[in-house]
Specification:
This protein is α/β, with parallel strands linked by helices. The chain has a single domain, classed as LmbE-like (Rossmann fold, 3-Layer(aba) Sandwich), CATH 3.40.50. Helices cover about 40% and strands about 15% of the residues. A seven-stranded mixed sheet has the order 3-2-1-4-5-7-6, sandwiched between helices. Strand 2, helix 3 and strand 3 form a beta-alpha-beta unit. Helix 4 packs across helix 5 and helix 6 packs antiparallel against helix 8. The two termini are about 20 Å apart. The model has no long low-confidence stretch (mean pLDDT about 95).
Length: about 250
């Protein structure tokens, strides 16, 4: 396969810490391979607290996100929507398109289309739509990079590796992150504000231990100590060859 002219990866997720939980190991491997890395969230995490007001927690969480991605030399962006209220509508889609236009990714990662939380589902739709249309000259006021094209698109594992009805998710692609697990842990640990929130709302006492358990389970399936799993979007006109598998030797489902 032919590598993209520009190596730019964008993870568009719903909330700060989503990328660190679901795909940071792969982003680390991409950064190590010379890719430019961007993490974006639809919302700033304004509801991720039981004790603080929305402004203070948003400031804390976006700063945590910037710190995390800076560990791999990446850039953080936020569409500034609200937690729990992310929708697929014209204004929000335009924000997503403008983000893609500015970043011009050749590889995009996002949430699975069937996830436990509707913010995740909406962001999956936004990322899919933006990846398709952002390179059209008239769709955004931002300048169009010459290399702009429909990127490779992958959906991350959902929490618990199951769909909303409890059915196991079958990946198309595994990425071995054994050597990147320590750095992924360091990135996720930047989101320290979330421990009490996840304990109260989700019943997850140790989100880092949870991440490591998921990585170990996917790693066992992939023949590695730790792995992340994805489903590749292969619909026209997204590229159908599996660039993550080609780059990192991931086992295909």
């Amino acid at each position: 396969m032919k590598m993209p002219e520009k190596k730019i990866a964008l993870a568009l997720m719903a909330h700060p810490d989503d990328a660190e939980m679901m795909c940071a190991g792969t982003l680390i491997r991409l950064a190590e391979a010379g890719w430019e890395i961007h993490i974006a969230t639809a919302a700033p995490g304004d509801c991720g607290t039981m004790t603080e007001n929305c402004w203070d927690i948003s400031c804390t969480r976006t700063n945590e996100a910037r710190k995390a991605v800076s560990l791999i030399g990446g850039t953080y962006h936020c569409l500034d929507e609200r937690d729990g209220l992310v929708v697929y509508d014209k204004p929000t889609l335009q924000k997503a398109i403008d983000l893609f236009r500015v970043v011009a990714p050749t590889l995009a990662l996002t949430h699975t289309p069937a996830d436990y939380m509707m913010d995740h589902v909406m962001v999956s739709m936004l990322a899919r739509a933006a990846s398709f249309i952002y390179s059209a000259p008239n769709v955004s006021r931002h300048p169009r990079a010459e290399h702009s094209t429909v990127p490779y698109l992958y959906y991350c594992d959902p929490v618990d590796m199951t769909d909303p009805l409890g059915n196991p998710v079958e990946p198309t692609t595994y990425v071995n992150i054994t050597d990147q697990l320590e750095k992924k842990t360091e990135m996720l640990a930047c989101h320290a504000s979330q421990r009490e929130w996840l304990r109260a709302q989700h019943g997850m006492d140790e989100y880092i231990d949870t991440m490591k358990r998921y990585a170990a389970e996917r790693g066992e399936q992939a023949g590695a100590q730790a792995a992340e799993a994805f489903i590749q979007h292969r619909g026209h006109p997204n590229p159908a060859d599996d660039i993550l598998a080609e780059l990192f030797g991931g086992k295909k489902g």
